[in-house]
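note to self: dont lose this again. the chain is below, predicted strucutre after it. 343 aa total, dont forget to put it in the shared folder this time
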Amino acid sequence: MQQRIGHLTTADGSDVAYASVGTGRPLVYINGWLSHLQLSWEVLAERAFYESLADGCRLVRYDRSGCGLSAASDRQPSLAYELEQLSAVAEALGAEPFDLMGTSMGALVAVAWAAAHPETVRRLVLYGGWVTGAQIAEPSVQDHLLGLVESHWGLGSDVLTDIFAPDANFASREEFGRYQRASSTAGSARSLLALSYDLDVSDLLAEVRAPTLVVHRAQDRAAPIEQARALADGIRDAQLVVLPGRSHLPYAGDAQSLVTPIRRFLGLRRLPRDPRALTGRQTEVAALVAKGCTNREIAVRLGIDERSAEGHVERIRLRLGFTSRAQIAAWCAARREESASAK
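---
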């Protein structure tokens, strides 16, 4: 899949960059705290997650003001401003009702939109969200994180990476730290984080009329599971799906277990998933990983450059849902044992 990037203008003249991928009924996706449409498409795990959502529909994402490809604004972040930006995206889609998915802070924006514009939302998906931002962390923790982001954006982004993706490997954590810093300035990041703590949609839940799915990981370190239950309890007939895991980022950890109930709820066909279905070249690379070869050694043996070898290993890891080369090696060993026993 290839995404198409364009720009919209809000009622007050703010610039909003948006990306579209896939075809079919629109699924509007509201990101959490920070985003960057282009960089996120270059992160293999994140791109794979979006492609899984976009199979059979048109996935529309956007960067909020001050993030990624959207220009900064003199306006301070607020729920009203969030809704104005979403309104520009909704207007570009036309009159047809769309599916709406909000993650993290975006879940609260999605709730507010669905409550105010029930005629526009066909189905609503909330992942990793909360009802009251003041309850997702102790006041002292909030003050510490806000101060750290403002005074030392590098360290602040690393600390937040530990919270958002505790199970990610070192390389992925380093990548996400850089991604956050490239997505926003320290000042904008601090203001948006403060907004996430300030938002409260408790008085809007009863006004949501769209069929709603609330999905949450049981040990999410950024948003307590109790907040997910509160979301589901407050929205009439909402479904709650609790998945194992600690990662707040939807594409970190077992992303497939997250995608499956979402696609089912939206009426999209089930994606085939055969974790053993590697390409021929990936099978070769996996076998060399199992022999203990480095990326450079794999490149020499296969006559490719080292960066290509690294890319193959990363794609194998993502396809198999693994976090380390050791897991790839163990998987290869298990395959050999199965093959031997079948003979």
